[in-house]
Write a structure and sequence with these properties.
alpha/beta, single chain, 249 residues, five-stranded mixed beta sheet
Length: 249
């Protein structure tokens, strides 16, 4: 079983992780030094019992969070098939934020991903055409993303939009990423050209979907943790996260 930071509610975090698809706990992936899920669980697990302590993401403002959930399903508006899950869901009186977090994934070889044909159904409501149009462009090869895993982000955006509409909230897709200098597992350097390419693809993705209903908010792990550390009550937590997962860039 994984070892969470000692000041966290380990059983509650573990229960959240076990209900999610992917089987990272039983497969042992969670315990790998490069694990992205371990970083997310330990960083955001602090707020499961104290959501109001989570600082608002830069540029959003709004009311304090009243719920923070690890591994949350954001269902499409139909039954059956594979439904999108986000790493973290954050809800306030005005916002529904789905967090997709990455660590080393953008710097590994790209994986092929497809958007379900059912996504072409006219069920997403107004102002989602940029996301769905981008999905079509990726499928046709008109748009290519090599470092940014764009298709899961589009799926997440559509799921977040569906659930936010039901709850009368503004939907936000927060993409939290790292820019590490070395691989935690091997100590080998991360290719700086891949880091630069990933950043450029984030910017391109954001430009394409700008103006749609789901706000796309890219954030670096280093910046988020620095923001948290400005709050005295979170400094010990941030120090513990950096102590275990330092070198996030």
């Amino acid at each position: 079983m994984p070892e969470f930071l000692p000041h966290l509610a380990g059983p509650k975090i573990l229960a959240a992780l076990l209900r999610a698809p992917g089987n990272e706990i039983k497969s042992g992936k969670f315990d790998h030094p490069d694990s992205s899920q371990a970083l997310v669980a330990n960083a955001f697990g602090y707020f499961l019992d104290r959501p109001e302590a989570l600082p608002s993401f830069p540029g959003l403002g709004g009311n304090p969070a009243y719920a923070v959930t690890l591994e949350a399903e954001m269902r499409f508006p139909w039954d059956g098939g594979r439904q999108p899950w986000v790493d973290v869901a954050i809800e306030s009186e005005s916002l529904l934020i789905g967090v997709e977090a990455r660590r080393y994934e953008p710097f590994r070889p790209a994986k092929a991903a497809t958007f379900p044909e059912a996504a072409e159904r006219p069920v997403w409501g107004a102002r989602m055409g940029r996301y769905t149009g981008l999905a079509s462009d990726i499928a046709s090869g008109a748009q290519v993303f090599d470092c940014l895993d764009a298709v899961p982000l589009i799926k997440a955006a559509c799921g977040i939009r569906t659930q936010a509409f039901k709850r009368a909230r503004q939907p936000v897709l927060a993409y939290i990423y790292a820019e590490p200098e070395v691989w935690a597992g091997s100590g080998k350097p991360v290719d700086p050209e891949r880091i630069a390419q990933h950043r450029a693809e984030i910017d391109r993705f954001g430009d394409i979907v700008l103006g749609d209903h789901v706000v796309f908010l890219p954030l670096r792990w280093a910046d988020i943790l620095a923001q948290w550390a400005r709050k005295a009550s979170l400094q010990a937590h941030v120090a513990a996260v950096l102590g275990r997962f330092g070198g996030l860039g």
